[in-house]
Amino acid sequence: MIEPLADLPDGVIGFEVSGEVHAEDYTGTLIPALEAAAATGEVNLVFVLGDRYEGYSAGAAWQDTKLGLKHHMHWHRTAIVTDVGWISHVASTLGFMVPGDFQAFPLAEKDAAIAWVAADG
After folding, report:
1. Rounded to the nearest 5°, which phi and psi values hold at 78?
2. Residue 104: per-residue pLDDT
3. CA distance 73 to 22
4. pTM higher than 0.90 for the full model?
5. Which of 97, 78, 98 is nearest to 34 (CA)?
6. How far is Cα 9 from Cα 33, in angstroms, rounded to an integer?
7. Which of 88, 89, 105, 108 is at a distance of 20 to 30 A from 97, taking alpha carbons?
8. What is the CB-side half-sphere exposure of residue 79 using CA atoms within 13 A?
9. pLDDT tens string 5-44
10. What pLDDT is stored for residue 68 in this prediction?
């Protein structure tokens, strides 16, 4: 399940993942929010994979793969916040492939991740 984060700075959207993520989580929650953000000019995203995260279904993985390609010109800043070891490793290794600026943060630095995404430049 992908749930919106509350109380974020203007111009920042954020989500926390719990349980297993399915394609419907992308098409019903994440993609509409990203398209709305892109329509305003830029996407600034905080994505939290915390203790309740259990994984991605094959359909969700495919949606994730397609996600960066659509509106790639609108991606400004993305922060992934997690203590899941393999995700942190992949983010550090392949983060250069994410459109716009990208940075990974541990869960303890969630507030710093939000501040970094909200920063102007």
Report:
1. -135, 130
2. 92
3. 26
4. no
5. 78
6. 15
7. 108
8. 23
9. 999 999 999 999 988 887 788 788 888 888 888 888 888 9
10. 53
CB 120 within 8 A of CB 86: no
- Rounded to 10 degrees, the C-alpha dihedral 8/9/15/16 comes to -50
> Could you give the CA distance from residue 20 to residue 102 in angstroms, rounded to a whole number?
24
Taking the C-alpha atoms of residue 96 and residue 102, their distance in angstroms, rounded to an integer, is 7
Selection from 9, 4, 3, 6 nearest residue 119 by Cα: 9
Is the CB of residue 62 less than 8 Å from the CB of residue 99?
Answer: no
Q: For residue 103, which amino acid is it?
A: Q
